[in-house]
Design a protein that fits this description.
The chain is 74% helix and 2% strand. The chain is mostly helical. It has a domain at 2-95: Winged helix-like DNA-binding domain superfamily/Winged helix DNA-binding domain (Arc Repressor Mutant, subunit A, Orthogonal Bundle), CATH 1.10.10. The protein has a 3-stranded antiparallel beta sheet. Strand 2 and strand 3 (76-78) form a beta hairpin. The protein is elongated.
Length: 428
């Protein structure tokens, strides 16, 4: 009670706004109590408040000056836990239900649209279902490229999970399913599989609640890939459902993606021949849809599957075709993937100089795209190629960097495997 009384004094002492179109600090304080994320940026606060960025920042700074809000960086704010509770109380007591709902809807749709822009910045050729235009006055952020999109995601990672959860609990199911799915290439690049699985289970429930079959298939495709990556047998069921739903609604691109991810899951289970059959089907679907990027994905995955079966001679042509397509459509990360797979193929063919060249180029591409998970794979293979070429110091450095990157991504098993490979080669 004493703490609440102290907060009440500070709240009542907040200055009134002097600008005609300004945002009163007291109104900002109330509205912040509606947001369930652990922090908020000025841009997200502007969406929540329904005002411009600079007016939102003025109101936020007024709250910081009154010691009712903490500034954790130049553009990020958070409440002390008890102040969060008090702010929520003020929101419920002082704001009408429609006003509260409108504010929550604005900030969650802002996150949805900004996540969509970030996913496209990181992977311009990604699968997409167009967003509906909503005239609520909020403008999502735009990004200059992959690094910019990844940086925003890194800052907002915990908030994105919170936003998905809040949208689901608020009954904003169109937002709840659509918010996390375009972030798949970023979850993948950062190996944030736990966050992907958490958000996509919520998204799946929401897509089903509103009967969005195409959206349901997209969620299942992403979820199945993540579950397959961590070795969860549920992946197969998710991906088989995604294939069936995509076929049912006539989504050739969606079906090809689901088939590709199902093939990945089969490969991890040692069912590689079945995987190749699925990948060939995906290749046909992408060609029928005229989707060159998807065609490149199918080709590189067929090549990888053939490499798993020790059929490097057959794999080479598929991988070279994939690389040419990715270059044609200017897909930097895809070209990196093909180059690394070509490096692996050349290692299998004992063409060590070609392996070194392609692995080095592939690593550069993944560095440009910010895909740290693929950087680690490239470094591991590069270390192998360098060791075979007698480049002892370079091999040690590549393996050490690969292990460190896997550690950073939380993949301790692969980090241990890389160190074991390095040590067994006498390069520890």
């Amino acid at each position: 009670m004493a703490v609440r009384a102290s907060f009440q004094v500070s709240f009542a002492s907040l200055p009134a706004d002097t600008q005609a179109d300004g945002m009163a600090a007291a109104d900002a304080f109330r509205l912040l109590g509606l947001w369930q994320g652990p922090s908020i940026s000025a841009a997200a606060a502007a969406a929540l408040f329904g005002t411009s960025d600079y007016l939102a920042e003025d109101a936020l700074e007024a709250l910081v000056d009154a010691h009712l809000l903490e500034s954790t960086s130049s553009d990020r704010y958070k409440f002390h836990d008890l102040l969060r509770v008090y702010s929520s109380e003020r929101a419920v007591a002082d704001l009408s239900g429609p006003d509260r709902d409108a504010a929550v809807g604005r900030v969650l749709r802002w996150y949805m649209r900004t996540a969509d822009a970030a996913g496209t910045a990181v992977r311009p050729h990604r699968y997409n279902i167009a967003l509906e235009v909503v005239g609520d006055g909020t403008r999502p952020l735009s990004f200059t490229g992959a690094d910019d999109g990844l940086s925003w995601y890194d800052d907002e990672r915990v908030n994105l999970v919170a936003a998905t959860r809040q949208a689901c609990s608020a009954g904003l199911h169109e937002v709840a399913w659509r918010l996390p799915v375009p972030l798949f290439p970023i979850f993948e690049a950062r190996s944030n599989w736990a966050d992907l699985i958490t958000t996509h289970r919520l998204a799946l429930d929401s897509a089903r609640r509103i009967g969005n079959r195409k959206g349901e298939a997209w969620v299942l495709t992403n979820l199945g890939e993540a579950l397959g990556y961590i070795g969860d047998s549920e992946a197969i069921g998710c991906l088989e459902q995604a294939v069936a739903i995509s076929r049912e609604v006539g989504d050739l691109t969606g079906e090809s993606r689901a088939a590709n991810n199902l093939a990945d899951a089969y490969t991890r289970l040692g069912r590689t021949e079945e995987a190749i059959d699925l990948l060939r089907r995906g290749l046909e679907l992408n060609r029928a849809a005229g989707r060159r990027f998807g065609e490149g994905v199918a080709l590189v995955n067929i090549g990888d599957a053939l490499l798993d079966l020790d059929r490097a001679d057959e794999a080479l042509d598929y991988l070279q075709q994939a690389w040419r397509i990715f270059v044609e459509v200017e897909a930097v990360d895809g070209a990196g993937y093909a180059l690394v797979s070509l490096g692996r193929c050349y290692l299998a063919l004992a063409r060590d100089a070609d392996a070194l060249d392609h692995l080095g180029q592939g690593l550069t591409n993944h560095q440009k795209s910010g895909n740290r998970a693929r950087q680690a794979v490239a470094l591991r293979l590069l270390g192998r190629a360098q060791a075979r070429s007698g480049l002892v110091a370079e091999a040690r450095e590549s393996w050490t960097r690969a292990a460190g990157t896997f550690d950073d991504l939380g993949d301790n098993d692969q980090a241990a495997e890389v160190r074991a490979e390095r040590d067994s080669s006498g390069f520890s």
